[in-house]
Amino acid sequence: CEPEPVHRVLGYAITGSPPVRLCKCALGIFTLYMVHDLCQEACFRVPGFKFGWFMTLFEIAVFSGAAVAELRLTSNVEAAPTLSPTFIAQLLGLSGILMCSQGFGNASLALISFPVKVVFKSCKLLPAMGLGLLVLQKQFVLAEYVAAALLSLGLALFTLGNLWDHSEFTGSFHGLVLISLAVLFDALQPNLQEKLLQSCHKAQMILWSNAGCALLLLGFTAMTGELQQALQHCAQQPQALGILLVQALSGYCGLQFYLGIVKQFGGVNAVIVTSLRKVATVVLSFIIFPKPCGLGHLVGGALVCTGIGTVSYTHLRAHETPEHLVCRLLLEKKKKTINKTHSL
User: Fold this and answer.
1) φ, ψ for residue 257 (rounded to 5)?
2) Can you tell me the distance from the alpha carbon of 132 to that of 53, in angstroms, rounded to the nearest whole number?
3) Burial class of residue 3 in the structure, from the number of CB atoms within 10 Å of its CB (0-12 exposed, 13-18 middle, 19+ buried)
4) Are 271 and 312 within 8 A, CB to CB?
């Protein structure tokens, strides 16, 4: 039989059995993306920093440069894909989606707290189900509707925990609109990324999609004046540039592990791992950057986690192969036999 394809992160192979490779990629996602997210929150705590679109442009530019370096390292490993019209259209679509997803999400941090952003980002199921119902007339199982209800209620309670002060409601409302748009575009990413990874190397996808995204962001920030303001601010507060650089580099390396799971184990497993990582990030955010934490945060967070767990379990069962199903049923039968033996 043919050997399984080797996934590489910055030129280094991720080897081992499938569970070992999954654990290695998951560990990389947890560690690097938690550093990325904490740097993101720390940057907005630099006095006067409120440039979410510039943050996105800086990160995308670093991603493009790092992708060029990785392509040079792996130039003899992966062949360049055929640039068909469909492939180019998918890349352009991904560039636009990346710009909106990352830009709206980072811009919202000037108006809402970081945990609220992370909780919203964990609820991709809601826009995905909405698009499926309205556009594709897709049918969903009962567990997915239950998960959607839990996520909606959890989001409401968690958000209300940050809106008790009526004087901040207007700014927070605008932030909620921005993060909602980010989640809408974010829900479109995994399937498109999975399709592109079938015909190109991950570094090529990152380079071309981020290069297109960077051009769009450069024009947007220059037109709105945010580019000039952000550069002036960074000249006065150089520590902001250092935080942005660490954030971007950790995000790029974390993305390699994320794409490794997408390519080897599918988008469903990637979403499950990233959802668990986001839960850990929220907890760490409350510890490292102390902020008010009330009953609404706790109950809302618990409901969101329950909703994520429900839909994750449903999707895993839906993607279960016949071989996995047989193994699972045999294990369940073995457990029942052991339990009966012990009861006797």
Assistant:
1) -70, -40
2) 29
3) exposed
4) yes
Rounded to whole angstroms, the Cα distance separating 36 from 59 reads 11
For tokens 């925990």, the residue is: 161
Assign 89 to helix, strand or coil: helix
Q: What average pLDDT values come out for the chain (344 residues) when binned by 10 residues?
A: 58 75 86 90 90 92 82 59 70 85 87 78 69 65 74 69 49 79 80 70 74 90 94 92 93 85 71 76 80 72 73 56 42 48 50
**Can you tell me the distance from the alpha carbon of 259 to that of 21, in angstroms, rounded to the nearest whole number?**
12
pLDDT tens digits, one per residue of 300-337: 777 777 776 676 666 555 544 444 434 434 444 444 55
Q: Residue 264 corresponds to which tokens in the numbers above? A: 């080897």
Residue 14 phi, psi dihedral angles, 5° rounding: -95, 105
Q: For the segment 219-247, what is each residue's pLDDT rounded down to a tens digit?
A: 999 999 999 999 999 999 999 999 999 99
Q: What is the pLDDT of residue 81?
A: 56
**Dist. CA 108–CA 52, nearest whole Å:** 7
3 state SS for 127-163:
HHHHHHHHCCCCCCCHHHHHHHHHHHHHHHHHHHCCC
Element (H, E) at 280: helix 267-288
The amino acid at residue 67 is A
